[in-house]
Write a structure and sequence with these properties.
alpha+beta; four-stranded antiparallel β-sheet; two-stranded antiparallel sheet; 2 helices; 28% helix
């Protein structure tokens, strides 16, 4: 095709007489993200999010009326158990890796030791 460039992303191509720098596609691994909701003992709706970043699950939560998310350095046992169940179900459908399930198991074991 005239004017098209199929070389490295740093090359420039001429389109309609104008110099255009082609964009470079960067493949970044998608962060592992899972979210769920449940009712507290007081009947309030609580949302929990788990994000796998740098080889560790980081959990955050908020009650419906809260503006800000609470970030948990040490997650609650019930939240970790729920995360593990979600990961297991997704693993069976090939939507999560076995390493993710094992990491959740490890975090539960570490929590039980402390």
């Amino acid at each position: 095709m005239p004017g098209a460039s199929f070389g490295p992303a740093s090359e420039t191509a001429s389109v309609n007489g104008l110099a255009k720098k082609s964009s470079k596609v960067v493949n970044r691994p998608m962060r592992n993200f899972h979210a769920w909701t449940h009712r507290t003992e007081e009947g309030e709706k609580r949302e929990v999010r788990a994000v796998k970043n740098q080889g560790r699950w980081r959990l955050q939560s908020k009650v419906k009326q809260d503006e800000e998310w609470t970030y948990h350095e040490v997650p609650e046992k019930s939240d970790l158990e729920e995360l593990r169940e979600i990961l297991w179900r997704k693993y069976q459908r090939r939507r999560a890796s076995h390493e993710d399930v094992l990491l959740a198991d490890k975090m539960l074991a570490d929590l039980a030791r402390n």
